[in-house]
Amino acid sequence: MCGIGGEFRLDGAPPDLAAVERMLPALASRGPDGEGRWQQGPAALVHRRLRIIDLSDAGAQPMVDPELGLAMVFNGCIYNYRELRDELTAAGYSFRSTSDTEVILKAYHRWGTACVERFYGMFAFALVELATHTLVLARDRLGIKPLYLAEGPGRVRFASTLPALLAAGDVDTDLDPVALHHYMSFHSVVPPPRTILAGVRKLPPATVRVITADGRSTDTTYWRPEFNRAAAPAMSADEWQERLMAALRTAVRRRMVADVPVGVLLSGGLDSSLIVALLAEQGQTGLATFSIGFEAAAGESGDEFHYSDLIARHFDTDHQQIRIGAKRFVPAVHQAIAAMSEPMVSHDCVAFHLLSEEVSQRITVVQSGQGADEILAGYDWYPPMANVARADAVEAYARVFFDRRHDALGGHLAPEWMLDHDASLEFVAAHFGAPGADTALDAALRLDSLVMLVDDPVKRVDNMTMAWGLEARVPFLDHEVVELAAACPPALKLAQGGKGVLKAASRGIVPDEVIDRPKGYFPVPAIRHLSGPLLDDVRDALTARPARERGLFRKDYLEELLDAPNARRTTLGSNALWQLGLLELWLQRIGV
Fold first, then answer.
1. What average pLDDT does the structure give for the chain?
2. Is 265 annotated as ligand-binding?
3. At what angle do helices 576-589 and 532-543 cross, to 10 degrees?
4. 534 labelled as ligand-binding?
5. Which residues pair with 218 in a beta bridge?
6. Binding site annotation covers 506?
């Protein structure tokens, strides 16, 4: 796990080494254990290292192989790197390190861009062919590891974070009106390749981009599950449960690959509890587990310690409760915003940021339960899709998921920021209209698994954990688990109020009290119910000079929200004022 950056020239000029060097401080938290830099011909690469596999200097990056004529920087972990190393050794390759980075180099030389299809893991990498002056950028199937890009005259820059590109300089920081529409409508999700800034784009998940020295660029999408029953054998409900649990056992075991200890972020929900159970089943003892809680607000509880404590006792883990008081909370909100590569409204960001700060003092790698709700229909907007005709799926999805419809948005955004078309609905319609996805629910789960999941919970976990040099691994997003979930009949997923197939499969493995508990979320009451210093900060941001000059929102709408800060909720129950305030707080934080 690391931070990467670089520049690739398309005009024959040398790369701007000073600009690339400026990325390093912005990437430091992702790799606190060292830094490296390399330049040759049209390319310059920089790297910040977090030592997890091959702790020696032999695993340092940028990694250059003069014999193969390749150089690269890499962020992530290839869980099957040992098996691939054995295969490559048998094919005649020799290794000077025990790192997964070197396996990627050799694998690319052996199999070209198709090497990514052999990787089980999370990754973003930039690789340079020294002889041909070709740049190869790649991102893992579920976009667990980020890769941002900024193009300029005669060059392209890339980095693990958007702020690193801003630090390099010469980026168009105008807002992208289409991205703003998505932010306000599509539950604050801005799908790739866009970001909220017009001058920054992100490589889509499951994509390999090849850029040649003359500026030609080609993208290859190498993975896309179909979300239908065509490739799935006819199986009983019991057989689906057995297949799912077998795949999860493998996924959890894969994510124990490390030369340092691995712990678990234990929320007390089924997903993280099952990870603990499967690790215990595989013989892990004294497993480090961590949970977090906040002070209650407006009568809403701020912790789920009852359930996390139950699991910790049941499996005899080395458990740590982290309690966050009011004095610590508001500064943590601003620290979490500073750690965001893009504005992220979810209350979970603050929780993950604080949790990661504490956990990183004891451990470097954790497993986490993100992704189960998106791939196994755990959210409350999925049941309304169950009996919707496929032809009516787009409108049904928008009705249950969109924060604001396009017509309503006209009363919220200032006229100069309004689009003359419904960009978010058009995006959903195009996604739903792609081949595959038999039912309306299949189409919704495909969109959420391949888009919403990537640019909300997955990005949130990456940004907040890596702000403290903590690597988070997500077994529910093992691509084989996702493929199996995509093929599972919708009725099995919707059973028992959602995630039915997982709940049934977990009986006898996880205590029933956790399986049968009401659906929970990372509770952060002080954001759902804005008051005190945090409300003052939101008000100040929305009325500050940069916000007035930007003029994103209608004055009457802002006044309405500020007069009653907790009265207006989005479709999914988020605080509408927080959504606007967070955007301005983030923009002002990055200096826009």
1. 94
2. yes
3. 60
4. no
5. 210
6. no
**Which of these is catalytic: 2, 77, 115, 349?**
2
Q: pLDDT confidence of 556, banded at 50, 70, 90?
A: very high
Q: Which token pair is 127?
A: 């690789």
Task: Check residue 262 and give left, alpha or beta (phi > 0: left; psi -120 to 50: alpha).
Answer: beta
- Beta strand residue intervals within 52-154, DSSP E: 63-65, 70-78, 121-129, 134-139, 148-152
Instruction: Collect all residues with Cβ–Cβ distance below 8 Å to 534 and sequence separation of at least 6.
Output: 329, 330, 333, 526, 527
Q: Is residue 532 helix, strand or coil?
A: helix
Q: Which domain holds residue 178?
A: 3-221
Q: Is 2 an active-site residue? A: yes
Task: List, for residues 374-408, the tens digit of each pLDDT value.
Answer: 999 999 999 999 999 999 999 999 999 999 999 99
Rounded Cα distance, 33 and 28, in Å? 9
Same structural domain for residues 25 and 123? yes
Q: With contact defined as beta carbons under 8 Å apart, do 308 and 291 qualify?
A: yes
Domain ends where: 424, 441, 458?
Answer: 441
What is the pTM assigned to this prediction?
A: 0.96
Is 70 exceeded by the pLDDT of residue 483? yes
Residue type, 238: D
Q: Which residues pair with 208 in a beta bridge?
A: 138, 220
pLDDT per residue as tens digits for the range 304-361: 888 999 999 999 999 999 888 778 888 999 999 999 999 999 888 988 898 899 999 9
Statement to judge: residues 433 and 500 lie in one domain: no
